[in-house]
Structure formats: structure tokens, C-alpha cells
Amino acid sequence: MAQVLEPVAESTGLPGTPDFDSYPIQHWPVAARAAEGGVDVEWDDGSRSRYHPMVLRENSPDPETIHPVTREQARMLTEFPADLAAIEASIDPAGALAVRWSDGTASRYHPGWLYTYRPGEATRDEDMPERVIWGGDLDLSAVRVDGSNILEDEDQLARWCEALHVHGFAILENLGTDRSVIEQVPALLGPLRDNNFGRIFDVVTKPDADSNAYTSMGLPLHVDLATREYMPGLQFLHCLQNESTGGESLLADSFFIVEKLRREAPELYEALSTTPMTSANKAVNTDYRWTVPMIHLDPATGEPLEVRWNPWLRAPLTADFETADKVYKGLRRLFQMGDSPDNTVTVRLKPGEMLGFDNRRVLHGRTAFDPSTGGRALRGCYVEREELWSRLRIVARHKRERLVSN
Amino acid sequence: MAQVLEPVAESTGLPGTPDFDSYPIQHWPVAARAAEGGVDVEWDDGSRSRYHPMVLRENSPDPETIHPVTREQARMLTEFPADLAAIEASIDPAGALAVRWSDGTASRYHPGWLYTYRPGEATRDEDMPERVIWGGDLDLSAVRVDGSNILEDEDQLARWCEALHVHGFAILENLGTDRSVIEQVPALLGPLRDNNFGRIFDVVTKPDADSNAYTSMGLPLHVDLATREYMPGLQFLHCLQNESTGGESLLADSFFIVEKLRREAPELYEALSTTPMTSANKAVNTDYRWTVPMIHLDPATGEPLEVRWNPWLRAPLTADFETADKVYKGLRRLFQMGDSPDNTVTVRLKPGEMLGFDNRRVLHGRTAFDPSTGGRALRGCYVEREELWSRLRIVARHKRERLVSN
């Protein structure tokens, strides 16, 4: 199964890379020299990169440094001398960077790999399609995907994964109404995330409802389990029956809404992305609480990673008066925007359809329904987002491999 | 099952609170007045608090505002007027704050609740024992807990939860070696977290190991699944057999080690808590990656929330030369400290014992073992940290209820 590291790709004379990715060559290095212990490389577009010695040394694609089967680092950082330095660096006839190290190792680097990881670049994630942030005018055909053969057909799987990532939600059609669908289809991405409502939950009206979800009430936009340190990533709801009057699903892209707030009132956005707020579950037998700013910014990019849109599980805010004022103004504005069709889409799920959404990004709710007019039954589960992203990368890798082998 | 909100506790004349917590009275309010739309309260120690109107209004413990059964907010923030203000505020004869609001509502607030949530305070988490950050001189008796009757005995459960939280790890003893222990005992906290290695994993040597864990190699200190957006919170390892020479478990408190780094080299600590680093799983059929600073600081407190101590799954660092230099110096120093008995403890697990640790705080590893000298078999699983914390709060609540009823 596992591919063995090939130190040299025969046809090109270029060395292998320290992982399973492919690195198409965009630019060739034209000159190199040892500098400050590291290596200066000049590229064919005239740009220059200064590599830190440890970045190159610990990723040297030789079998002593990188395990040839697992491609994991086989040597601990502390095994390399602290004063490790490049003694000599050059571009060899095949176009690879060749380095002689002070620890006696000689390494060669693939130019595609070297260019990808040049200093000052964000880490690439080449198989991740660009996200589309959407408002109320979203054309739902962009998120409707045929799932009639999804257990077998990797192209259907790929389209579903892409919609889920790009728009943060997707409606998979033609799944039938077998109760096992909710076990089998989300599991194509990865393991289901168990939780105190059960690994699989049935969204039906219950006489002794322990959550508003299990009533026929309308539910305003929200995220699930905001009271947890780690909110569930993806939620799936498979529709078995939907005959009641009402019971439409509401969806909104919180990243779209908070971006509107950032533009119209940056000081309120700032308050909501820096003020710790506690979400608290108030139940008799569980007591989940978590304190974090509502808008969680990615430290790497400054963009939202998740939004804890939590209308009814907020603990009393203990911020000072002035901060509380900004937080409440910001919350009110967000909740108002969440009530507007400018920012939301409405979907009436049909039996055999499964709605999936990124619970850290896409808000969900529903309109009230009248159980006397007919049954409404959904089955739900959670899966982590990282499973979707891993699947997207693997599907893209398989696609490349098919292209190569055809 | 659910308790119904009691608007007034008969014996004291004080109003109920909007949740299930208890609020012992530490100070009494002595005066109150409407101010800036909110309420100024003077306490019996002379201190003053100015409450924002929305904090008080949306937590008014009346059944229109707080659902009497679920104690969740029954009214959306947007239902209150944006210019809501206190018209009149006073301390009533029972010692409660009484407020008349511009929307016509009259509310009364319990003094214990009011004092707990005064502005400028950190949100309290009264049942969470203080953490102990430890080094190599930790006395292991502090983390050894009898588990002989843990499925039945809530006091054993409480002691185990406390050790797990306070020290970030615990050794539960006298569990026997039934293979189902790893299903039943961690499930006392909450549902097991499934993952690509399985809901339950057997740590035994395998001929076709897809992870170093399944070899007899020594494993340096690390955290599990650093490549995920959300790393597993708690890990449990139940020992069935441990007869080999070697195979001791190594543990270290990463919060202790990074604090040492912060003191001795603040600029390296700063680099590791701000520079995005990518952890990348390199496998044939999964491709997990996550980019985040190694030391994740809690935005609410500035203290570490988790440390992604990842010796062998780091993607090439693309920081600029100067930053890369600090990151590598910091990493080297951390890994050196992780190799020192000043910072680690060694445990030889016996059959029937279960090691549990906070995978976001406590690093684990093992010494190499010689499979020819005897068998070594552990069974493992993950549970989220939030389940531990919820359980700790509920166990404390039960203890209070027992005190009251005795």
C-alpha cells in the first residue's frame, strides 16, 4: 500500500520530496549560495529566498531524515547540532538545489517543493477550493448535488465535498429514506462524532422535549453545542418525512453577516471578536460551559474561523459597562441581520434529501410547523470538519493519479 | 426530572435565579439607583458596580424571560427595545435588587447571583478545582485513585475527575483486565470520540504498523492528533498486559515547560505562541493538516489552553528567516526540556490500571520495549475535555444537594 520514498525520479534526475504531495514546477532556481548558515536561492523570475537551515535540513528527502514509508520525520530536531549550517549550496544540472551541511550530510531538494515552501509564504493548501461567502441571493443549484450513487461514485463524493467546503453547506439529493443513510453517507467523510444527544439523533417532536429542537417551535438561527470547548464541525440532517405545514430550514453564512458588521461598525466587530463570552448549558444532568469571544479569528489569517452564534445559551456577561454596551449593540445588529432575507436562504427539505452544513460557519434554524398537518422527521449526526478537508485532499490526489495513469 | 423555576424562595423572600446554580450570599447590596440606563449597586463592603441594562433585563428570573423548565432564555435579544432602560432601582426589604424597566417589566434579582456576575469580574466556575502545574518532582500518589468500584461509587468518580483536571492526568487502579473497561469507565465522563484509528484502539506491536505507536520503538513526548483542527481532549490507556522489559510511560506537563521557556526566553515563547505552524499528517489515504501557533493562548486569560507538541508531523515552516530562527530555537529548547527528568515523570503501568491524561496539556511518550521479553497490550480511547468539566460540576452539584438533604 504505502509508497516507498524515491530519492531520485528517474526521468528528470530530480530528487523526491519528503511527503506524498506533488509539486509542479512553476519556477526554476538559477543560483544558490550558503548565507547566514542557511541558503539563498535566486529564482528565474529574479526573486530571492533565504531559507533557514533547519527548515531544509529536517526536510532533507533522504531515508535517514524522512522515514521512507511513513514520510514522517525520522530524526528529532534535537539530534541536529544547534549550530548546523550550510557549507556549500548550488543548483545542479537537473535543476535541484544541492546543499552540503556542516553535519556531513549532502541533500538535494526538488525545485517545486522548494518554491512552494519559500519563506514568507502562507502554507499552501493547493487542493482546497476557494470559499464563496454568500448572502440571501445564493442560487441553491450551486449546493444541490446528486447523491444517487454516492456510496460507489467518487465523482459524486467529490462534488458533495466541494459544495460543503465552498458554500459551507450542501443538499445531497436522491438518497432514499432508509434510516441507515445517516450512518452511511456522512461516514464517507470520517467517523461520526458522538455527543450527549446521541451519535445519531432523531429530530421529531417529543412530549418531554429536553431541547427546543424536539418541539414544533420555530428555531431562530443558531449553531449547535456552542457551550463546548470544541463545537461540532459538520452537521447532517437526513429528511425521512416532511408533510407538515411549515418546518422550512433556514440557513445563513455567518461569515457574510459578520463581515457586514465589520464594515458598518468595526468597533462592534472588534468587541465581539475580543470580549470573552460564556456559553452555558443549563441542564439538570450536564453543565457544559465555554468562554471565548463570539467571533473566533484565525491567528494565521485574521479571518473568522468560527462564529458562536448563540441566541439563548449565554451566561450573564461580566464585561465592564462600556464593553457590554458594544457587545449588546453588536449582538443585536447581528441577530437583526440574521432575521433578514437579505442574509438567509430557505430550503424545504424533501424526503430522501440530506442537508449538511459547517456548524462553525453556517447558521441554521427552522420555521415553526404544525404537527397536526402531517409528520416531520429528520435524523441527524455530526462529523468533524477536518474529515471533510482530508477527504477533499485525498479525492484531489486520486484525480491527479487517474490523470497520470490515463 | 426538571426543576421548575421558583420565582421566590419562600423562606428568605429572595427571588430565584435564572439557572440551576446556587449562589451563596457573600455580600449584601445596600443601595441602588438607575444610572445611564443601567443600575448602580452599592455593596456592604463599600464597593460599587454599574450593571448594563441588557445583562439584567435578559436574565430577569421571571417565566416570561427565562423558560421555567429549561432555564434557557425564552426571549430573543431583539425582542427587547434597543433603548431599554431602568426607570427605578432599589434594594427591597428581603435584600434583593428591584428594578422597574422602561418596557413595563418589574424584575427582582438574588443578591448572590448579582454579586457573582458584577461587571469586571471573570466569569466564575466555582466547582472547578485549581490546577496544579507540575514538574519532575510530582508525587505520583496525588494522581493515583482507587477505581475498584468506580461504576457505582460517585465519590471515586469525583476523586478521579478532580485528579484528571488538577494534574491533567490520573492513574485509576484496581479496574481488572476485562477488555470492556476501556468502553465503560471513560464513558462515565461522556461519549467516546471516534477517529480514524478507531473508537477503541489496541496499542500492540503490529507487523505492518501505520503509526510508530504500533511498533516497539520508544516514543518521544508528543500529543496525539496534532494535525486536527480540534485535537482530542482526553486520552485513556487501559493496561491489559505489561511484561516486556522497557515500555514505561513518560509524562510531562507542557504548561510547566512552556512557562519555563516564557521566563528564560520570552521572545522564543512569543514566537511559538504567535507564529502559525502547520502540522501535517502524511498518509496514503488521509491528509489531515492544521495551521495554528504551537502554544495556543486563551484569549480570555492569556494563559495556555493547549500546546501542540509535535515532534515529527510538522510541515515545512514558511515563516521568514528571523522568525524561523526563533521558532527553531524555541522548539529545540522545549524538546530538550522534554528530555530532562526535571520535567517528566515515569510510570510503569500495571495490568488493571488505566492512565488518563489531558492530551491538550499533558505530553505522553514511552520508552522502547523488547517484545521478546513478554507481552505489552494497552487499549485506548479519547473523550472530550468538556465532558470531564461538565461531570466535575455535576458531581459538585450532587454533593451540595446531599449536604442540603442530610
Automatic annotation (TrEMBL), chains A, B:
One of its GO terms (biological process) is carnitine biosynthetic process. The keyword Zinc does not apply. CDD domains: CAS_like. This is Gamma-butyrobetaine dioxygenase. Residues 141-382 form the TauD/TfdA-like domain. Pfam families: GBBH-like_N, TauD. Residues 1-20 are annotated as: Disordered. Keywords: Dioxygenase, Iron, Metal-binding, Oxidoreductase. The keyword Ribonucleoprotein does not apply. One of its GO terms (molecular function) is 2-oxoglutarate-dependent dioxygenase activity. The lineage of its organism: Bacteria, Pseudomonadati, Pseudomonadota, Alphaproteobacteria, Rhodospirillales. Its cofactor is Fe(2+). Residues 35-114 form the Gamma-butyrobetaine hydroxylase-like N-terminal domain. PANTHER family: GAMMA-BUTYROBETAINE HYDROXYLASE-RELATED (PTHR10696), OXIDOREDUCTASE AIM17-RELATED (PTHR10696:SF25). Belongs to the gamma-BBH/TMLD family. InterPro entries: AlphaKG_dependent_hydroxylases (IPR050411), GBBH-like_N (IPR010376), GBBH-like_N_sf (IPR038492), TauD-like_sf (IPR042098), TauD/TfdA-like (IPR003819).
